């Protein structure tokens, strides 16, 4: 029995090197892509960044326009409350309530616009990312690379393995522009058993501008 086991072990040992040789991986050829440069210089990226900056400026302007009169009203109300020695009458209390309502509406409007802006930013990244991956694969394959990595994740790389220029050229050809307006979100379905409002009483909504 011992002889049989020893023979089997020797046979297994003899086979192992052959299996290792069959499973050996080829030497990797690595390509490097500077993603920061891609997102900063590609034609679609530059145009999208300009338009997104304009959207951000519009949002900041809106916030200023809404906050300025509220700040003025807040100061006026504080003066009135101080004069009433902390005991506002019905009229002053009504002003305070109306102010709080306007303040909440302004905050909600700004929050909604901020969410829209962030969705637009994410949509731009999505469009670029969907094209960038295949472009990197194509260029790296054409250069004989078996692996492509982000330059920002390397300690050192020789200029000869950097394919960023070729990726930029191919991406500009494949994706000359992107949309900076994210598709509208699907409306939330009404709860089960809920009765929709009659058509005559439904509020009219205004479609937001898309910048087109």
TrEMBL record:
Signal peptide, first to last residue: 1-20
Q: Name one Pfam family in it.
A: OmpH
Question: Which domain of life does this protein belong to?
Answer: Bacteria
Matching Gene3D superfamilies, A to Z? Skp domain
Q: Which InterPro entries match?
A: Chaperone_Skp, Skp_dom_sf
Stretches the record annotates as Disordered: 187-212
Q: Which keywords label this protein?
A: Signal
The family this protein is said to belong to:
Belongs to the Skp family.
Protein name (record): OmpH family outer membrane protein
Q: Which organism is it from?
A: Sphingomonas floccifaciens
């Amino acid at each position: 029995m011992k002889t049989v086991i020893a023979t089997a072990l020797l046979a297994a040992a003899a086979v192992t090197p052959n299996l290792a040789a069959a499973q050996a991986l080829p030497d990797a050829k690595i390509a490097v892509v500077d993603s920061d440069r891609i997102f900063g210089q590609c034609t679609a990226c530059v145009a999208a960044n300009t338009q997104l900056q304009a959207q951000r400026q519009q949002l900041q302007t809106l916030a200023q326009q809404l906050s300025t009169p509220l700040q003025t009203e807040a100061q006026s109300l504080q003066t009135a409350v101080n004069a009433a020695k902390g005991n506002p009458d019905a009229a002053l209390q009504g002003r305070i309530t109306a102010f709080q309502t306007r303040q909440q509406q302004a905050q909600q409007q700004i929050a909604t616009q901020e969410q829209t802006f962030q969705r637009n930013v994410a949509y731009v990244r999505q469009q670029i990312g969907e094209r960038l991956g295949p472009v990197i694969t194509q260029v790296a394959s054409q250069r004989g690379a078996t692996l492509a990595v982000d330059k920002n994740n390397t300690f050192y790389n020789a200029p000869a393995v950097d394919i960023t220029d070729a990726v930029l050229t191919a991406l500009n050809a494949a994706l000359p522009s992107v949309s900076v307006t994210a598709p509208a979100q699907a409306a939330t379905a009404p709860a089960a058993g809920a009765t929709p409002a009659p058509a005559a009483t439904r509020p009219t909504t205004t479609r937001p501008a898309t910048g087109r």
